[in-house]
Amino acid sequence: MGRGVMSHTPQYIKGDYLQICDICGFVMRSSRSRKRWDGLLVCEADWEPQHPQDFVRGVKDRQNVEEPSPESVDTIIGPLTTTTTAAINAGATTLFVASSTRFSAADVIGVTRSDGDVQRCVVSSVPISTQIVVTAGTAMRGAVSSGALIVNYSAVSGPSY
Fold first, then answer.
1. Which residues contact residue 60 at a Cβ distance below 8 angstroms, ignoring those fewer than 6 apart?
2. 103 in Cβ contact with 152 (< 8 Å)
3. CA gyration radius for the chain?
4. Is the domain 79-156 a CATH 2.40.10 member?
5. Where are the domain boundaries for CATH 2.40.10 in the chain?
6. pLDDT at position 76 over 90
7. Which residues contact 114 (CB under 8 A, 6 or more apart)?
8. Are the C-beta atoms of 157 and 75 separated by less than 8 Å?
9. Measured between alpha carbons, how far is 98 from 105 in angstroms, rounded to an integer?
């Protein structure tokens, strides 16, 4: 089983022709060559079986959802807003609004004044569904026009069901 280059003219052996190993390039007799799994003709020293990992087959993975639920409707979650329904004078503490639903005492709100500035106020109470009363310390420092935006920074509107 020696490996070596034939340094002399090889003898003729009927049916046993000469071949060259596809890996190492040595000359060998066909009786000593083998065909590998990848189709190469090689000498006995370069022959190797196909690796067992080449025969591993994957297991089919079930990727379906057992109990799917419908996709929810997109909702915008953000600050709770309302608008004023009447003009409000400077120094006033009562705001007349379209709706005071979900506004409560101690909420921090922003009121857009007529001059374009947003004034932060603290809600004192919500006596009825169309009124918001702010604390005296945060009374309006300027006039507020009808239809002005009021943003409740403390409450965040969630999805409606």
1. none
2. yes
3. 44
4. yes
5. 79-156
6. no
7. 142, 143, 144, 145, 148
8. no
9. 18
